[in-house]
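re: ur question from the group chat, yeah i did fold both. here u go
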Amino acid sequence: MATHSESSENTLRKRRVETSKTHSDDNTPNNEEDTCEAKKKELVTLQTGTYWLTRIVLLRSIAFIYFIAFTVAYNQNKQLIGERGLLPCKDYLLSVKRYVGGKIDMSAFAYTPSILWFLDWTDMDANLDGIALVGMALSGFVLLTGTANMIIMAMLWVLYHSLVSVGQIWYSFGWESQLLETGFLGIFLCPVWSLSQVPPRCPPSLISIWTFRWLIVRIMLGAGLIKIRGDRCWRDLTCMDYHYETQPVPNPMSYYMHQSPWWFHRFEVLSNHFIELIVPLFTFLGRRMCMVNGTLQIVFQVTLIVSGNLSFLNWLTIVPSLACFDDASLGFLFSSGRGAKQAVLDLQAEEAAGWTPKPTRGMLFRRVVNVALGVLIGYLSVPVVLNLLSSKQVMNTSFDPLRIVNTYGAFGSITKERTEVILQGTLNEDPKDPEAVWEEYQFLCKPGDLTRRPCLISPYHYRLDWLMWFAAFQTYEQSEWVIHIAGRLLANDTSILSLMEYNPFQGRDNPRWVRGEHFKYRFTLPGSGPQGKWDMPLCHNRRVEG
């Protein structure tokens, strides 16, 4: 039988053992906080399958394109669609109003979605400038900070939609709809209110990421199929023999690319078909093949940027390609040990340790919104897919008034020789006088003066220069705005002349006559043409005279 002292000693020993175990437990990471901290120390590389950093890259890229687009609008809208523009948007809105019954109601808004319906029309130039400046400010903020919420992205989309809807022929290019679709998808990348780069309770939705991937698949397949079904030169591999010389606005590299040997041009066409028709399907073959698609599409678009001035089209097409990359593949773009990258590492460590935020009502509602987005894009994609499968495929078309899901394509046909309309004026009273001196106007970028080097402006865009390319193979009856230009030049209108590089009648009397001469242009061969000349006219004939 144990004595009282032995019992007390045994009890003391037990207490010491229990105390020792307790301290031992406190020194090992068995509780959740210590486990999480240990995971954070262990996790030094980003894990695959998350898209926090992808979201930041996408938002900054979309904001960059928006900033360029709004800058172009601010610099050119007044001259093109302003109060005294070539095609005033006020006149267009009035014609729409008459068409829908003389009232500004939902039918008018559905026909032409624009906030200009709700603004004072007494100073339309101020309205256009205001929209452009607000757009520049918002997109500049997102570009610099790498953060946005749904409110900001929705405002950018509404503002640019308002310009495109009233832009008429000046905004009739495929990249306008492509920017609107890309911008619409960007709305759903963001939290509703938060301006955090890495908001813990609002991870990027996989559905949202896949809407971008679906966009790049449709863009490239549309471009590839329209070529195969279009100009025969895409099938006999000769289109690149002409493209660099006849594209709307060549750049300096276009001249040198045009001089490439015939076998290289054949290789270019084959590569184009492979990248536009085969590579997009890699998107559906797992993470690595999706990244291969993204990489090849970006390289392809950079090549196009280098070889021509195609506005911000190719820059914009890079954007959905970025959705092919997750955080692990984009981590090299971010600084280690701080900022967004460290925040993502911490979130991944917490997830690995089993720490996941308890779903809130807001998070559950957001999941419903993401599913609704997927259903909407799927539903609106039906006519687009049917168009891709159709032998009568059309490109750069919208099947809904908001341009949420569109068809795309480029250069389905290739012009085989370059034509230019060269505007000229004279002070002579008789335009038929053989002694009359005709002096040429020079545009900011389009070919004209033979000694001027081709310009380099991408991603910026001169809308008038681009439309003059179309006017060159149309009659002036098909392009009435050309007649408007001639009338403005007769008056030495400073607004229109601000869109040109050289006015031969600056500080002189107004011209008595203005005409358009139709020239055929071609690049000179290196070392064979007149010294200092990039282009050589072959022939000309009069097309416009006023």
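okk and heres the other one u asked abt
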Amino acid sequence: MSESKKPLLGFVHKLPSGTAPGNSGKTRCPLCMGLFKAPRLLPCLHTVCTTCLEQLEPFSVVDMRGGDSDTSSEGSIFQELKPRNQQSQIGILCPVCDAQVDLPIGGVKALTLDHLAMNDVMLENLHGEGQGLVCDLCNDREVEKRCQTCKSNLCQFCCQAHRRQKKTSYHTMVDLKDLKGYSRVGKPILCPIHPAEELRLFCEFCDRPVCRDCVVGEHREHPYDFTSNVIHKHGDSVRELLRGTQPRVEALEEALAQIKRVNSALQKRVEAVAADVQKFSEGYIKAIEEHRNKMLKQLEDIRVQKENSLQLQKAQLEQLLADMRTGVEFTEHLLASGSDLEILITKGVVVERLRKLNKVEYNTHPGVNDHISFSPQEKAGQCHGYEVYGAINTKEVDPAKCVLQGEDLHRAREKQTASFTVLCKDATGESMGRGGDNVHVAVLPKDKKDSPVRTMVQDNKDGTYCVSYTPKEPGLYTVWVCIKKQHVQGSPFTVTVRRKRRPHLGVFHCCTFCSSGGQKNARCACGGTMPGGYLGCGHGHKGHPGRPHWSCCGKLTEKSECTYIGGQSTSTSLLRTVAL
């Protein structure tokens, strides 16, 4: 019987948008969405119409397995195994799950027919839930009867012809409506090698169904039996495998359920965090805007204050200039045009006025400057609980008012880091209170001015700057500290670098008796002794300095340089000093 090939309308290679796998049921193709026509079972256990599979775009794959493939097909089960070598093979993708399907040599039509799906389609048509069945012989008219002997669906015309033929005249014919209670009405499964024979036997060696002609031909030496006799054994093995698979299905379903729950929790958490971010951002933006408005208002107030100061100074200078011009013009006119007597008469008034004008103090420089700067990195406190940055600064550092501080200002040790602090102030002597000024420091040896010492300047962001350097050799050094290319107060200055401090060899103790635990032979550089044969000092005894001191050299300052020199004898008996 020839297979009817009708073109698919609106064919696509993928499932239609919004169609989930399995929604088409057991009788409809997931591609064309129509009832199955010659359905083929793919290795991934999805079923698709033969015509739909033929319209998929194939691709070339390389098969390293030789002729032994996972692809199950009726046409390939009787082919001999090929040698294991590399060969090119044609494949397609399953339109449901995108699994790769290696096509057998016969192509799509060599794939396994899904007889179970064909039976379901037949049952659906019998119950009037699908389209009308078409006659198996003419493939044209609708089915009215079914031959129970050859399992064929026939139209009225073909049914009459079926009865007239001698070979089929004895076949039993039933009306189609009488089959609605049946669970299986499928056609007999015929052998692909011998189409006239049904597959009733099973070859144990080849593990596949065969027909009567097969067992006397290609399978004549293979053990075989009727399918009804071997179905229990093979069915049990499939059931056993199914029992081992079902827990995995449940585990995967539980895993997917957990993923769904976590994803749901994730979405809720993301929404909550997004709300927090939105709330924080809105509050921060509001705080920044309010801080901006404050700074702009502050800037406007500074402008008004400076302008008022300039206007006042301008008015005062203009008035003073007008008074002076009046005095100068009147005096010049008096001296040029007045008589001797007139000059003498008005001299007193003129002299007093000019003297008074000359005594008036005034500033020739503007009382305010245009120094206004914005420091975006400067902390400006909090606004509505948010830390805000940026400040308007009107102070300007005055190098002449800046001072230098620190214990290491004029002294240092070789190969030891020395440091001091630069305190920046404005013209009024007030601390700048902020950083950002360009402080330049140079440390130069007096005898090697072309070899400056490397210096580090750390901005403390509060108007102070920590300067550190490490001289490599002892001697005199000159230190320059400049701001805005001007020396600060006290710069330049000289630093005396002495040799590296000698560490103490003994202990800083109150007395030898206490630090040694009462040892008689323990000595101290202070020269003190105790009665009873003790060679070291003790509280209240002869020679004790009365305060803590170093046992090696007798110095009373804990942070000091050791002066002990081995080999010399002094009044403090340094030779008897013991390092404890």
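fwiw on the second one: The helical segments are 50-54, 115-126, 156-164, 212-215, 227-337, 340-359, 512-516. DSSP finds seven helices and 25 strands in the chain. idk if thats what u expected
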